[in-house]
Model the fold of this input.
Amino acid sequence: MLLAALILLFPESPRWLIDHGKPDLGLQTLARLHAHGDTSDAWVQAEFQAIQDAVVFEHENEAKSYTELFKDRSCFRRLFLACALQASVQMTGVSAIQYYSVTIYGLMGIEGDETLKYQAISSVIALVAQASCILFIDRFGRRWPLIFGNLANCVTFIIATILLALFPPGANDNKAAAWGFIIVTWLYNFSFSATCGPLSWVIPAEIFDLKTRAKGVSIATMTSFAFNTMIGQVTGPAMKTAGYRYYILFIICNFTNALFFWAFLPETAKRPLEEMNRLFTDAPLFVPTMDRSDWASNDLERRVEEVKAKQESVAHTEVGAGAVGGH
Done:
Protein backbone atom coordinates (compact mmCIF):
# COMPACT_ATOMS: atom_id res chain seq x y z
CA MET A 1 0.00 0.00 0.00
CA LEU A 2 1.08 3.62 -0.52
CA LEU A 3 1.03 4.24 3.22
CA ALA A 4 3.29 1.28 3.81
CA ALA A 5 5.73 2.53 1.19
CA LEU A 6 5.77 6.08 2.54
CA ILE A 7 6.25 5.21 6.20
CA LEU A 8 9.38 3.29 5.22
CA LEU A 9 10.98 6.69 4.71
CA PHE A 10 10.52 7.64 8.37
CA PRO A 11 12.16 6.07 11.43
CA GLU A 12 8.90 5.58 13.32
CA SER A 13 7.33 3.26 10.76
CA PRO A 14 6.01 -0.06 12.14
CA ARG A 15 8.39 -2.07 9.98
CA TRP A 16 11.39 0.00 11.08
CA LEU A 17 10.45 -0.41 14.74
CA ILE A 18 9.94 -4.16 14.42
CA ASP A 19 13.16 -4.51 12.45
CA HIS A 20 15.09 -2.62 15.15
CA GLY A 21 13.95 -4.66 18.12
CA LYS A 22 10.91 -2.61 19.16
CA PRO A 23 7.99 -4.91 18.30
CA ASP A 24 5.67 -3.45 20.97
CA LEU A 25 6.05 0.06 19.56
CA GLY A 26 5.63 -1.35 16.06
CA LEU A 27 2.36 -3.02 17.05
CA GLN A 28 1.10 0.18 18.67
CA THR A 29 1.96 2.17 15.54
CA LEU A 30 0.12 -0.33 13.33
CA ALA A 31 -2.88 -0.06 15.63
CA ARG A 32 -2.89 3.73 15.39
CA LEU A 33 -2.64 3.55 11.60
CA HIS A 34 -5.37 0.96 11.02
CA ALA A 35 -7.57 0.50 14.08
CA HIS A 36 -7.67 3.70 16.15
CA GLY A 37 -5.15 2.24 18.59
CA ASP A 38 -6.79 -1.18 19.06
CA THR A 39 -3.85 -3.60 19.19
CA SER A 40 -6.18 -6.61 19.38
CA ASP A 41 -7.76 -5.83 16.00
CA ALA A 42 -7.53 -8.87 13.72
CA TRP A 43 -6.12 -6.92 10.77
CA VAL A 44 -3.47 -5.29 12.96
CA GLN A 45 -2.45 -8.63 14.46
CA ALA A 46 -2.29 -10.26 11.03
CA GLU A 47 -0.13 -7.52 9.52
CA PHE A 48 2.07 -7.52 12.62
CA GLN A 49 2.69 -11.25 12.22
CA ALA A 50 3.35 -10.88 8.49
CA ILE A 51 5.91 -8.13 9.10
CA GLN A 52 7.64 -10.16 11.82
CA ASP A 53 7.88 -13.21 9.54
CA ALA A 54 9.21 -11.12 6.65
CA VAL A 55 11.79 -9.33 8.80
CA VAL A 56 13.14 -12.64 10.16
CA PHE A 57 13.32 -14.18 6.68
CA GLU A 58 14.94 -11.15 5.08
CA HIS A 59 17.54 -10.80 7.82
CA GLU A 60 18.49 -14.43 7.33
CA ASN A 61 18.79 -13.87 3.58
CA GLU A 62 20.04 -10.27 3.52
CA ALA A 63 21.88 -9.20 0.38
CA LYS A 64 25.60 -8.84 1.09
CA SER A 65 26.49 -7.15 -2.21
CA TYR A 66 24.99 -5.56 -5.31
CA THR A 67 25.69 -8.70 -7.32
CA GLU A 68 22.83 -10.46 -5.55
CA LEU A 69 20.40 -8.13 -7.30
CA PHE A 70 21.49 -9.68 -10.59
CA LYS A 71 21.69 -13.31 -9.48
CA ASP A 72 18.13 -13.72 -8.21
CA ARG A 73 15.43 -13.69 -10.92
CA SER A 74 12.87 -11.92 -8.75
CA CYS A 75 15.36 -9.26 -7.60
CA PHE A 76 16.60 -8.61 -11.13
CA ARG A 77 13.05 -8.27 -12.44
CA ARG A 78 12.28 -5.65 -9.79
CA LEU A 79 15.58 -3.87 -10.39
CA PHE A 80 14.95 -3.75 -14.14
CA LEU A 81 11.44 -2.33 -13.66
CA ALA A 82 12.61 0.24 -11.09
CA CYS A 83 15.44 1.45 -13.34
CA ALA A 84 13.16 1.47 -16.40
CA LEU A 85 10.64 3.53 -14.46
CA GLN A 86 13.20 6.10 -13.33
CA ALA A 87 14.66 6.36 -16.83
CA SER A 88 11.20 6.65 -18.37
CA VAL A 89 10.36 9.61 -16.13
CA GLN A 90 13.23 11.63 -17.55
CA MET A 91 12.25 10.62 -21.09
CA THR A 92 8.77 12.08 -20.57
CA GLY A 93 10.44 15.45 -21.21
CA VAL A 94 10.00 16.83 -17.71
CA SER A 95 13.58 18.05 -17.44
CA ALA A 96 13.47 19.66 -20.87
CA ILE A 97 10.29 21.52 -19.90
CA GLN A 98 11.52 22.55 -16.45
CA TYR A 99 15.01 23.60 -17.50
CA TYR A 100 14.15 25.44 -20.71
CA SER A 101 10.55 26.65 -20.43
CA VAL A 102 11.62 30.15 -19.36
CA THR A 103 13.94 30.33 -22.37
CA ILE A 104 11.13 29.22 -24.68
CA TYR A 105 8.78 31.76 -23.07
CA GLY A 106 11.33 34.46 -23.86
CA LEU A 107 11.67 33.36 -27.47
CA MET A 108 7.89 33.51 -27.83
CA GLY A 109 7.84 37.10 -26.64
CA ILE A 110 7.16 36.49 -22.93
CA GLU A 111 10.06 37.96 -21.01
CA GLY A 112 11.17 39.36 -17.67
CA ASP A 113 9.08 38.85 -14.57
CA GLU A 114 6.23 37.41 -16.64
CA THR A 115 8.20 34.20 -17.30
CA LEU A 116 8.88 33.74 -13.57
CA LYS A 117 5.20 34.34 -12.77
CA TYR A 118 4.03 31.65 -15.18
CA GLN A 119 6.70 29.28 -13.91
CA ALA A 120 5.54 29.88 -10.32
CA ILE A 121 1.94 29.09 -11.33
CA SER A 122 3.21 25.90 -12.92
CA SER A 123 4.90 24.94 -9.64
CA VAL A 124 1.67 25.48 -7.70
CA ILE A 125 -0.19 23.29 -10.21
CA ALA A 126 2.43 20.59 -9.61
CA LEU A 127 1.85 20.71 -5.85
CA VAL A 128 -1.92 20.33 -6.32
CA ALA A 129 -1.36 17.40 -8.68
CA GLN A 130 1.01 15.67 -6.25
CA ALA A 131 -1.50 16.08 -3.45
CA SER A 132 -4.14 14.48 -5.69
CA CYS A 133 -1.82 11.55 -6.29
CA ILE A 134 -1.37 10.98 -2.55
CA LEU A 135 -5.12 11.14 -1.96
CA PHE A 136 -6.28 8.86 -4.76
CA ILE A 137 -3.42 6.55 -5.71
CA ASP A 138 -4.53 3.69 -3.47
CA ARG A 139 -7.99 3.91 -5.00
CA PHE A 140 -6.87 3.90 -8.63
CA GLY A 141 -3.69 1.85 -8.24
CA ARG A 142 -0.27 2.41 -9.77
CA ARG A 143 -0.34 0.65 -13.12
CA TRP A 144 -3.16 2.44 -14.97
CA PRO A 145 -2.44 5.97 -13.65
CA LEU A 146 1.15 5.50 -14.87
CA ILE A 147 -0.07 4.31 -18.28
CA PHE A 148 -2.66 7.06 -18.73
CA GLY A 149 -0.26 9.67 -17.35
CA ASN A 150 2.29 8.87 -20.06
CA LEU A 151 -0.42 8.95 -22.72
CA ALA A 152 -1.61 12.35 -21.48
CA ASN A 153 1.99 13.59 -21.55
CA CYS A 154 2.21 12.34 -25.12
CA VAL A 155 -0.86 14.35 -26.15
CA THR A 156 0.45 17.57 -24.57
CA PHE A 157 3.78 17.17 -26.40
CA ILE A 158 1.95 16.63 -29.68
CA ILE A 159 0.13 19.94 -29.17
CA ALA A 160 3.31 21.72 -28.07
CA THR A 161 5.18 20.39 -31.12
CA ILE A 162 2.46 21.64 -33.45
CA LEU A 163 2.55 25.08 -31.82
CA LEU A 164 6.33 25.28 -32.09
CA ALA A 165 6.20 24.10 -35.72
CA LEU A 166 3.53 26.60 -36.80
CA PHE A 167 4.83 29.49 -34.70
CA PRO A 168 8.62 29.10 -34.42
CA PRO A 169 10.02 30.77 -31.28
CA GLY A 170 11.67 34.10 -32.13
CA ALA A 171 10.12 34.25 -35.61
CA ASN A 172 6.84 35.83 -34.53
CA ASP A 173 5.15 37.54 -31.61
CA ASN A 174 1.90 35.58 -31.75
CA LYS A 175 0.44 35.96 -28.25
CA ALA A 176 -2.19 33.28 -28.89
CA ALA A 177 0.54 30.74 -29.65
CA ALA A 178 2.49 31.85 -26.57
CA TRP A 179 -0.56 31.41 -24.35
CA GLY A 180 -1.28 28.08 -25.99
CA PHE A 181 2.22 26.90 -25.14
CA ILE A 182 1.87 28.12 -21.54
CA ILE A 183 -1.44 26.29 -21.04
CA VAL A 184 -0.09 23.10 -22.62
CA THR A 185 2.92 23.31 -20.30
CA TRP A 186 0.62 23.63 -17.30
CA LEU A 187 -1.46 20.66 -18.47
CA TYR A 188 1.68 18.60 -18.94
CA ASN A 189 2.91 19.58 -15.49
CA PHE A 190 -0.37 18.51 -13.90
CA SER A 191 -0.40 15.20 -15.77
CA PHE A 192 3.21 14.42 -14.89
CA SER A 193 2.98 15.51 -11.24
CA ALA A 194 -0.23 13.56 -10.63
CA THR A 195 1.12 10.30 -12.06
CA CYS A 196 4.63 9.66 -13.36
CA GLY A 197 6.55 11.90 -10.97
CA PRO A 198 5.32 10.58 -7.59
CA LEU A 199 4.90 6.99 -8.82
CA SER A 200 8.52 6.85 -9.95
CA TRP A 201 9.47 7.01 -6.26
CA VAL A 202 6.54 5.12 -4.72
CA ILE A 203 6.84 1.98 -6.85
CA PRO A 204 10.58 1.29 -6.31
CA ALA A 205 10.15 1.82 -2.57
CA GLU A 206 7.40 -0.78 -2.31
CA ILE A 207 8.43 -3.52 -4.73
CA PHE A 208 11.81 -4.37 -3.18
CA ASP A 209 11.98 -6.51 -0.05
CA LEU A 210 14.00 -5.50 3.00
CA LYS A 211 17.15 -7.37 1.99
CA THR A 212 17.49 -5.60 -1.37
CA ARG A 213 15.63 -2.29 -0.95
CA ALA A 214 18.59 -0.04 -0.13
CA LYS A 215 20.75 -1.37 -2.95
CA GLY A 216 17.91 -1.64 -5.46
CA VAL A 217 16.56 1.87 -4.85
CA SER A 218 20.09 3.31 -4.95
CA ILE A 219 20.67 1.91 -8.45
CA ALA A 220 17.25 3.15 -9.59
CA THR A 221 18.00 6.62 -8.21
CA MET A 222 21.39 6.63 -9.95
CA THR A 223 19.59 5.79 -13.19
CA SER A 224 17.25 8.74 -12.68
CA PHE A 225 20.08 11.22 -12.18
CA ALA A 226 22.05 9.78 -15.10
CA PHE A 227 19.14 10.31 -17.51
CA ASN A 228 18.38 13.69 -15.93
CA THR A 229 21.95 14.81 -16.60
CA MET A 230 21.80 13.52 -20.17
CA ILE A 231 18.57 15.39 -20.95
CA GLY A 232 19.87 18.55 -19.30
CA GLN A 233 23.03 18.50 -21.42
CA VAL A 234 21.39 17.52 -24.69
CA THR A 235 18.27 19.70 -24.70
CA GLY A 236 19.97 23.07 -25.26
CA PRO A 237 21.98 22.06 -28.35
CA ALA A 238 19.13 19.86 -29.64
CA MET A 239 16.61 22.71 -29.56
CA LYS A 240 19.02 24.93 -31.44
CA THR A 241 19.79 22.39 -34.16
CA ALA A 242 16.55 20.35 -34.40
CA GLY A 243 14.08 22.94 -33.17
CA TYR A 244 10.56 21.67 -32.64
CA ARG A 245 11.56 18.26 -34.05
CA TYR A 246 13.35 17.55 -30.77
CA TYR A 247 9.93 17.35 -29.07
CA ILE A 248 9.04 14.41 -31.31
CA LEU A 249 11.48 12.38 -29.20
CA PHE A 250 9.28 12.91 -26.14
CA ILE A 251 6.09 12.13 -28.06
CA ILE A 252 7.57 8.75 -28.97
CA CYS A 253 9.03 8.10 -25.52
CA ASN A 254 5.80 8.88 -23.66
CA PHE A 255 3.88 6.53 -25.93
CA THR A 256 6.43 3.72 -25.62
CA ASN A 257 6.55 4.28 -21.83
CA ALA A 258 2.81 3.66 -21.65
CA LEU A 259 3.13 0.58 -23.85
CA PHE A 260 6.01 -0.82 -21.78
CA PHE A 261 4.25 -0.45 -18.43
CA TRP A 262 1.05 -1.90 -19.85
CA ALA A 263 3.01 -4.96 -20.90
CA PHE A 264 5.41 -5.53 -18.01
CA LEU A 265 4.43 -3.68 -14.80
CA PRO A 266 2.12 -5.65 -12.49
CA GLU A 267 -0.31 -3.84 -10.20
CA THR A 268 1.14 -3.48 -6.69
CA ALA A 269 -1.61 -1.40 -5.06
CA LYS A 270 -3.18 -2.78 -1.87
CA ARG A 271 -0.61 -5.56 -1.79
CA PRO A 272 1.38 -5.81 1.46
CA LEU A 273 5.13 -5.45 1.11
CA GLU A 274 5.49 -8.97 2.44
CA GLU A 275 3.75 -10.39 -0.68
CA MET A 276 6.00 -8.72 -3.26
CA ASN A 277 8.39 -11.68 -3.40
CA ARG A 278 5.66 -14.04 -4.56
CA LEU A 279 4.33 -11.53 -7.08
CA PHE A 280 7.65 -10.89 -8.80
CA THR A 281 8.85 -14.49 -8.57
CA ASP A 282 5.88 -16.36 -10.01
CA ALA A 283 3.74 -13.85 -11.91
CA PRO A 284 4.09 -13.92 -15.73
CA LEU A 285 6.46 -11.41 -17.33
CA PHE A 286 3.74 -10.26 -19.74
CA VAL A 287 1.28 -9.01 -17.14
CA PRO A 288 -1.82 -8.38 -19.33
CA THR A 289 -2.22 -12.17 -19.40
CA MET A 290 -2.24 -12.42 -15.60
CA ASP A 291 -5.27 -14.06 -14.01
CA ARG A 292 -6.32 -11.47 -11.43
CA SER A 293 -7.91 -14.09 -9.19
CA ASP A 294 -4.62 -16.04 -9.04
CA TRP A 295 -2.60 -12.99 -8.11
CA ALA A 296 -5.02 -11.22 -5.79
CA SER A 297 -3.56 -10.16 -2.48
CA ASN A 298 -4.66 -13.02 -0.24
CA ASP A 299 -1.92 -13.81 2.26
CA LEU A 300 -2.85 -10.99 4.63
CA GLU A 301 -6.55 -11.78 4.32
CA ARG A 302 -5.77 -15.41 5.20
CA ARG A 303 -3.84 -14.26 8.26
CA VAL A 304 -6.73 -12.02 9.30
CA GLU A 305 -9.13 -14.97 9.14
CA GLU A 306 -6.71 -17.07 11.21
CA VAL A 307 -6.44 -14.35 13.86
CA LYS A 308 -10.22 -13.93 13.99
CA ALA A 309 -10.70 -17.70 14.34
CA LYS A 310 -8.14 -17.81 17.15
CA GLN A 311 -9.76 -14.87 18.94
CA GLU A 312 -13.20 -16.47 18.64
CA SER A 313 -11.82 -19.76 19.96
CA VAL A 314 -10.24 -18.03 22.95
CA ALA A 315 -13.42 -16.08 23.65
CA HIS A 316 -15.52 -19.26 23.40
CA THR A 317 -13.16 -21.07 25.78
CA GLU A 318 -13.30 -18.21 28.29
CA VAL A 319 -17.09 -18.11 28.14
CA GLY A 320 -17.25 -21.88 28.65
CA ALA A 321 -14.85 -21.72 31.58
CA GLY A 322 -16.88 -18.90 33.13
CA ALA A 323 -20.09 -20.87 32.80
CA VAL A 324 -18.53 -23.93 34.47
CA GLY A 325 -17.08 -21.81 37.26
CA GLY A 326 -20.40 -20.09 37.83
CA HIS A 327 -22.22 -23.40 37.91
Observations:
- The mean pLDDT is 83.
- The radius of gyration is 25 Å.
- Residues 2-62+297-326 form one domain.
